[in-house]
Amino acid sequence: MYTRLLLSGKLYDHLTEIDETGRDRLDRLIPQMAKAKEIDEALKTCDPMVWIARINNIRQRAEETILTELIYE
Cα separation of 61 and 59, whole Å? Predict the structure, then answer.
C-alpha cells in the first residue's frame, strides 16, 4: 500500500486524511470517556493531580483505540 500510494503521488493526501480523522476522533472520544467515568471540572478543582492522572489514562486508552482502528487493522 505504501509503495502504491507513494508512486501514485497520493501518500501525503492519505496520511493527512488519517491524521485529521484520528485527531477528530480523539477530540470526540476523550470527553465521552471522561463523562462516562465522571471526571469533571469539580474533580479538577478539588484534586488536580488525580484529575490529571485520570485524563492522561483516558487519553492513552483513546489513542490506543484509535491507532488500533485506523492504523493497525
Answer: 5
